[in-house]
Amino acid sequence: MRETIDAADATLLNLLQRNARQSLDALAGQTGLSPATVQRRIKSLRDRKILTGDIALIDPAKVGTGMTFVVMVELERERLDQIDAFCKRARDEPMVQQCYYLTGEADFCLICTASDMADFEELTKRLFFEDSNVRRFRTSVVMGRKKVGLQVLVEQFD
């Protein structure tokens, strides 16, 4: 269900997506609101589940997981319980950064990280080869990170 977002909330959400560590004073200065009003609005955005979390972005190469893979997965059967089971396995796997349920040729698209090809091979064994419902998977190795983010353009709507 679409929530009502006024101009001030839209501005706050866009500012927080760029830098969630800004102080209330800094946010107030950029929005024209008081720090107390900014704090109340952020609390409301969290309570309404519009703002769902704060994250730290890490350079994967600097922590030893410099390889990224895009994996398209086709399931053998698409019963709801089997889809849910695959989703749970993907959510529980730390090497899976993102998991999308799709229409089209593949059923899922996974974005995965690994330290090297051997590390990724172990992931394929755990996630795909050990799952009898995975018909096939196709992997593309990411050659370079050109844009990475989860930012959503937020506009006012009533």
Shape: elongated
* SSE order: HHHEHEEHE
CATH architecture type of the largest domain: 2-Layer Sandwich
Number of separate domains: 2
- Any idea of the CATH class of the largest domain? Alpha Beta
Low-confidence spans: pLDDT under 50, at least 5 residues? none
Q: Main β-sheet, in a few words?
A: 4 strands, antiparallel
Corresponding CATH superfamily of the largest domain: Lrp/AsnC effector binding domain/regulation of amino acid metabolism (RAM) domain
**N→C terminal distance:** 13 Å
Per the CATH scheme, the topology name of the largest domain is Alpha-Beta Plaits
User: Helix fraction?
Assistant: 25-40%
Structural class: alpha+beta
What's the overall average pLDDT, rounded? 94
Explain this structure to me?
The chain has 158 residues and is of the alpha+beta class. The chain folds into two domains: 7-47, Arc Repressor Mutant, subunit A (Orthogonal Bundle); 60-141, Alpha-Beta Plaits. It has five helices and four strands. It has a four-stranded antiparallel β-sheet, covered by helices on one side. The longest helix is centred in the N-terminal third of the chain and has 13 residues, at 35-47. It is elongated. The protein starts with 6 loop residues before the first helix and ends in a 17-residue tail after the last strand.
